[in-house]
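Justification of computing resources. Each target in the renewal requires a structure prediction run like the one illustrated here; the chain below, 97 residues long, is used simply to show the kind of job we budget for.
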Amino acid sequence: QVALFAQARMVAGFLGAGLANIAWCQPRTLVYELVPSHHQNPCFLAMSIQGGLQYWGELVQTGVADRNHTSAATHAADTPRIVSHARELMRHARQDG
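Resulting structure tokens:
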């Protein structure tokens, strides 16, 4: 995992412990975090800033009214739109880099 994250140009995923591996990313790696609307936590934004990473957080509506980290989402993620946005972010990052 260390080698994969160290070689990544982009890391995308939902808020969760798996994103802790961005600690191994090279500076300017793009981090695209999908943040559940019912559980917003800036920890990976802070890690990205400290590591010199490019960060984009996107609030994802989950259908959960209570702010907590234990409720399961009731809305499915719009995967095609997320993939399209990830591609757009990568194009933008290449132009800036």
